[in-house]
Automatic annotation (TrEMBL):
<dbReference type="GO" id="GO:0009653">
    <property type="term" value="P:anatomical structure morphogenesis"/>
</dbReference>
<dbReference type="InterPro" id="IPR003961">
    <property type="entry name" value="FN3_dom"/>
</dbReference>
<dbReference type="Pfam" id="PF00041">
    <property type="entry name" value="fn3"/>
</dbReference>
<keyword id="KW-1015">Disulfide bond</keyword>
<dbReference type="InterPro" id="IPR013783">
    <property type="entry name" value="Ig-like_fold"/>
</dbReference>
<dbReference type="GO" id="GO:0098609">
    <property type="term" value="P:cell-cell adhesion"/>
</dbReference>
<dbReference type="InterPro" id="IPR036179">
    <property type="entry name" value="Ig-like_dom_sf"/>
</dbReference>
<feature type="domain" description="Fibronectin type-III">
    <location>
        <begin position="45"/>
        <end position="138"/>
    </location>
</feature>
<protein>
    <submittedName>
        <fullName>Nephrin</fullName>
    </submittedName>
</protein>
<dbReference type="InterPro" id="IPR036116">
    <property type="entry name" value="FN3_sf"/>
</dbReference>
<dbReference type="GO" id="GO:0030154">
    <property type="term" value="P:cell differentiation"/>
</dbReference>
Length: 165
Protein backbone atom coordinates (compact mmCIF):
# COMPACT_ATOMS: atom_id res chain seq x y z
CA UNK A 1 0.00 0.00 0.00
CA UNK A 2 1.31 3.45 -0.86
CA UNK A 3 0.10 6.90 0.03
CA UNK A 4 0.59 10.21 -1.66
CA UNK A 5 0.39 13.73 -0.27
CA UNK A 6 0.36 16.96 -2.21
CA UNK A 7 1.16 20.42 -0.89
CA UNK A 8 -0.20 23.20 -3.09
CA UNK A 9 0.59 26.82 -2.38
CA UNK A 10 -1.64 29.14 -4.38
CA UNK A 11 -0.75 32.76 -5.01
CA UNK A 12 2.80 32.36 -3.71
CA UNK A 13 4.00 35.25 -1.56
CA UNK A 14 7.59 36.06 -0.51
CA UNK A 15 6.84 34.73 2.97
CA UNK A 16 6.04 31.32 1.40
CA UNK A 17 9.65 30.76 0.31
CA UNK A 18 10.79 28.32 2.98
CA UNK A 19 11.64 24.71 3.72
CA UNK A 20 8.63 22.45 4.18
CA UNK A 21 8.67 19.05 5.84
CA UNK A 22 6.35 16.12 5.28
CA UNK A 23 6.25 13.53 8.07
CA UNK A 24 4.71 10.08 7.67
CA UNK A 25 4.03 7.99 10.78
CA UNK A 26 2.72 4.46 11.23
CA UNK A 27 3.22 1.48 13.54
CA UNK A 28 6.49 0.61 11.77
CA UNK A 29 8.12 3.98 12.25
CA UNK A 30 8.35 7.37 10.62
CA UNK A 31 9.79 8.96 7.54
CA UNK A 32 10.62 12.64 6.99
CA UNK A 33 11.15 14.47 3.72
CA UNK A 34 12.07 18.12 3.36
CA UNK A 35 11.53 20.20 0.26
CA UNK A 36 12.50 23.80 -0.28
CA UNK A 37 10.32 26.28 -2.12
CA UNK A 38 12.92 28.67 -3.46
CA UNK A 39 12.57 32.06 -5.07
CA UNK A 40 12.59 32.16 -8.87
CA UNK A 41 16.07 32.81 -10.19
CA UNK A 42 18.02 33.26 -13.38
CA UNK A 43 18.32 29.98 -15.31
CA UNK A 44 21.31 27.67 -15.32
CA UNK A 45 23.35 27.44 -18.53
CA UNK A 46 22.26 24.96 -21.20
CA UNK A 47 24.07 21.61 -21.21
CA UNK A 48 25.61 19.33 -23.83
CA UNK A 49 25.75 21.75 -26.75
CA UNK A 50 26.72 19.95 -29.97
CA UNK A 51 26.70 20.49 -33.72
CA UNK A 52 24.32 17.90 -35.18
CA UNK A 53 24.40 18.83 -38.88
CA UNK A 54 26.28 21.10 -41.29
CA UNK A 55 25.96 22.06 -44.94
CA UNK A 56 27.94 24.47 -47.11
CA UNK A 57 26.09 27.46 -45.60
CA UNK A 58 24.37 26.30 -42.39
CA UNK A 59 24.90 24.51 -39.10
CA UNK A 60 22.36 22.95 -36.75
CA UNK A 61 23.13 22.89 -33.04
CA UNK A 62 21.29 21.12 -30.21
CA UNK A 63 21.49 21.25 -26.41
CA UNK A 64 19.71 20.21 -23.23
CA UNK A 65 17.90 22.72 -21.05
CA UNK A 66 19.44 23.52 -17.69
CA UNK A 67 17.29 24.42 -14.67
CA UNK A 68 14.93 27.20 -15.77
CA UNK A 69 14.97 29.08 -12.45
CA UNK A 70 11.27 28.30 -11.96
CA UNK A 71 10.16 30.49 -14.88
CA UNK A 72 9.75 30.12 -18.65
CA UNK A 73 13.09 30.55 -20.41
CA UNK A 74 14.28 31.40 -23.90
CA UNK A 75 17.68 30.96 -25.53
CA UNK A 76 20.21 33.16 -27.27
CA UNK A 77 22.76 31.57 -29.61
CA UNK A 78 26.12 33.27 -30.16
CA UNK A 79 28.42 32.33 -33.03
CA UNK A 80 31.42 33.65 -34.94
CA UNK A 81 33.95 32.51 -37.56
CA UNK A 82 37.11 31.26 -35.84
CA UNK A 83 39.49 32.75 -38.40
CA UNK A 84 39.73 36.20 -39.90
CA UNK A 85 37.76 39.04 -38.40
CA UNK A 86 36.00 37.82 -35.25
CA UNK A 87 32.52 39.27 -35.72
CA UNK A 88 30.14 38.00 -33.02
CA UNK A 89 26.59 37.26 -34.14
CA UNK A 90 23.63 36.73 -31.82
CA UNK A 91 20.25 35.18 -32.58
CA UNK A 92 17.17 34.67 -30.39
CA UNK A 93 16.12 31.04 -30.73
CA UNK A 94 12.56 30.53 -31.97
CA UNK A 95 10.28 28.98 -30.88
CA UNK A 96 11.14 29.95 -27.30
CA UNK A 97 11.26 26.41 -25.88
CA UNK A 98 13.33 24.95 -28.76
CA UNK A 99 16.58 23.17 -27.93
CA UNK A 100 17.67 22.80 -31.57
CA UNK A 101 18.41 25.64 -33.95
CA UNK A 102 19.76 26.03 -37.49
CA UNK A 103 21.99 29.00 -38.31
CA UNK A 104 22.02 29.81 -42.02
CA UNK A 105 23.85 32.23 -44.32
CA UNK A 106 27.24 30.96 -43.10
CA UNK A 107 30.38 31.01 -45.26
CA UNK A 108 31.46 27.72 -46.90
CA UNK A 109 34.50 25.80 -45.61
CA UNK A 110 34.67 27.89 -42.44
CA UNK A 111 35.08 26.89 -38.79
CA UNK A 112 32.58 28.55 -36.46
CA UNK A 113 32.35 28.68 -32.68
CA UNK A 114 28.86 28.27 -31.18
CA UNK A 115 27.59 28.73 -27.64
CA UNK A 116 24.17 29.31 -26.12
CA UNK A 117 22.70 30.84 -22.98
CA UNK A 118 19.27 30.90 -21.38
CA UNK A 119 17.38 33.81 -19.92
CA UNK A 120 14.11 34.45 -18.16
CA UNK A 121 12.49 37.54 -16.63
CA UNK A 122 14.84 37.36 -13.61
CA UNK A 123 18.12 37.25 -15.52
CA UNK A 124 20.40 35.29 -17.81
CA UNK A 125 22.73 32.33 -17.47
CA UNK A 126 26.36 32.23 -18.43
CA UNK A 127 27.09 30.83 -21.88
CA UNK A 128 27.40 27.09 -22.35
CA UNK A 129 30.70 25.49 -23.25
CA UNK A 130 31.49 26.46 -26.85
CA UNK A 131 31.59 23.92 -29.68
CA UNK A 132 33.12 24.14 -33.14
CA UNK A 133 31.39 23.35 -36.41
CA UNK A 134 32.93 23.52 -39.89
CA UNK A 135 30.74 24.20 -42.91
CA UNK A 136 31.28 22.10 -46.04
CA UNK A 137 33.17 23.35 -49.07
CA UNK A 138 31.16 24.93 -51.87
CA UNK A 139 32.51 22.21 -54.20
CA UNK A 140 30.69 19.53 -52.21
CA UNK A 141 27.45 21.47 -52.59
CA UNK A 142 27.86 21.55 -56.37
CA UNK A 143 28.61 17.83 -56.54
CA UNK A 144 25.54 17.08 -54.43
CA UNK A 145 23.28 19.26 -56.59
CA UNK A 146 24.64 17.64 -59.76
CA UNK A 147 24.02 14.17 -58.33
CA UNK A 148 20.53 15.16 -57.20
CA UNK A 149 19.69 16.31 -60.73
CA UNK A 150 20.79 12.97 -62.22
CA UNK A 151 18.15 10.58 -63.53
CA UNK A 152 18.33 6.81 -63.05
CA UNK A 153 17.19 4.79 -66.10
CA UNK A 154 17.55 1.14 -65.07
CA UNK A 155 21.23 0.47 -64.45
CA UNK A 156 22.46 3.51 -66.39
CA UNK A 157 22.92 6.74 -64.44
CA UNK A 158 22.78 9.89 -66.55
CA UNK A 159 24.52 12.85 -64.89
CA UNK A 160 22.89 16.24 -64.64
CA UNK A 161 24.42 19.40 -66.08
CA UNK A 162 28.02 20.17 -65.13
CA UNK A 163 28.57 22.42 -62.13
CA UNK A 164 29.33 26.05 -62.93
CA UNK A 165 32.50 27.61 -61.62
Amino acid sequence: MTWQSVLRIKDVQPSDYATYECVALNELGSQRQQIELGRPSAPDPPLGLKVVNVSHDSATVAWEAGFDGGLPQVYQLRYYPMSGKRHLSYVKVQPPNATTFTVDKLAPDTAYSFDVRAYNKIGKSTYSMAVEGITMREFLKRVWLTMAQSVDYGSRLLPGPPARS
